[in-house]
Write a structure and sequence with these properties.
Layout lengths: L3 E5 L2 E4 L2 E4 L6 H21 L1 H26 L5 E4 H22 L5 H26 L1 H4 L6 H9 L8 H18 L4 H26 L20 H5 L16 H19 L8 H18 L15 H22 L15
Antiparallel strand pairs: 1-4, 2-3
Helix pairs in contact: 1-2, 2-4, 3-4, 3-8, 4-7, 7-8, 8-10, 8-11, 10-11, 11-12
């Protein structure tokens, strides 16, 4: 459990002075923007200018916003903190995208298309997940007398932790649907392709939760129980009365349970792929099993209180909604004739 891995200095020595790494005209900002523009040029040469604009305008804006404004706002005296949670988000996005690219080749969909889709889904998914978290825990952000700028910094400090997976679903789903429509791709085939990759990303993201000390379980005495360090939310909620001062009592590593669960579901989705006969079956399987496992995991987690006057957490209530959506999707798939939609797969298990 290590929330901050290291710090990146905000300036570099230059002669008798220094160069800013971040900010609107920082060296790091200009370098990141240069890489992004080179990527844009490659995409424009391969797919056309209009397609490149539609896929990459949001990432370009996000890069400028991140390096130009967000990083300077969250910088500490030692520099910009590189947190385990944020690093694992990037690793999750990379690994999930790679698996989706491998699976897409069986359907004749090139890597550039999946990269464009992954960018849209990742960015809008993060927006939705953060927005849901801020709304759910609004009392932590919008405090009477708190400076507006500090509130803004806290809201955009995603690397510090605070994403609700279910909050990403509406925004990511809309982004994927719009992408499929623009590229004349079958949305259910596309969903089948990316479903295991999303689960791999979720598994790795939960490791980030473990490093950050969020999404924790309740006290337990099992051999694999873990104690979180001082400063984490779980250590504040469940402090030790004896032993190592400042640390939490041993608790369930609910984050690792969730990571294992998502990894197993990803493996199951990959294994089920060659047996699926209609577009959407792999995604429907994931949409059915993940809410069930999430409801069970929520019984172990203690970081979310009951919601809306029910004995269930907000994640459990949303799981019920997803189960209803899964039932509707299975019904829709059952009405579709003629096998799988989209481009026929070319063999293999991934």
């Amino acid at each position: 459990m290590r929330s901050i891995l290291f710090h990146v200095p905000t300036t570099l020595p230059w002669g008798e002075g220094s160069l800013a790494l971040f900010g609107p005209f920082g060296v790091g900002t200009l370098l990141a923007l240069g890489i992004a523009l080179a990527w844009f040029a490659v995409m424009a040469a391969r797919q056309g200018f209009q397609s490149a604009v539609s896929q990459l305008w949001l990432p370009l804006v996000a890069i400028v916003g991140l390096f130009g404004f967000v990083l300077p706002m969250i910088a500490e005296p030692a520099g910009v903190p590189v947190r385990g949670y944020g690093v694992m988000l990037l690793v999750a996005a990379t690994c999930g995208t790679w698996l989706s690219i491998v699976r897409a080749r069986r359907h004749g969909i090139d890597a550039d298309t999946i990269l464009g889709l992954a960018t849209q889904v990742f960015v809008w998914g993060i927006v939705g997940a953060r927005l849901f978290y801020v709304i759910q825990y609004h009392d932590r952000f919008f405090v009477a007398g708190k400076p507006v700028m500090q509130t803004l910094v806290d809201v955009v400090n995603i690397a510090g932790g605070g994403l609700v997976v279910f909050g990403s679903l509406p925004t990511a789903a809309v982004a994927a649907w719009l992408f499929a429509r623009r590229h004349t791709l079958d949305i259910l085939t596309l969903a089948d392709i990316i479903a295991p990759g999303m689960l791999v990303g979720l598994a790795l993201g939960r490791v980030g939760c473990f490093l950050n000390g969020c999404c924790y379980g309740g006290p337990c005495e099992l051999p694999w129980a873990v104690s979180f360090p001082e400063g984490t939310e779980v250590a504040i909620k469940f402090p030790q009365e004896s032993g190592v001062a400042g640390r939490s009592v041993p608790v369930h590593p609910a984050q690792l349970y969730a990571a294992i669960d998502a990894g197993l579901l990803a493996a199951l989705a990959v294994a089920w792929t060659p047996f699926a006969r209609r577009a959407g079956e792999v995604f429907a399987l994931v949409l059915t099993l993940h809410p069930i496992s999430r409801m069970l995991l929520e019984a172990i987690r203690v970081d979310e209180p009951p919601a809306l006057g029910t004995p269930f957490s907000i994640s459990q209530l949303l799981s019920l909604v997803l189960l209803a959506a899964a039932a509707a999707l299975w019904w829709h798939i059952g009405r579709v004739e003629g096998g799988r939609g989209g481009v026929p797969p070319r063999g293999g298990t991934l």
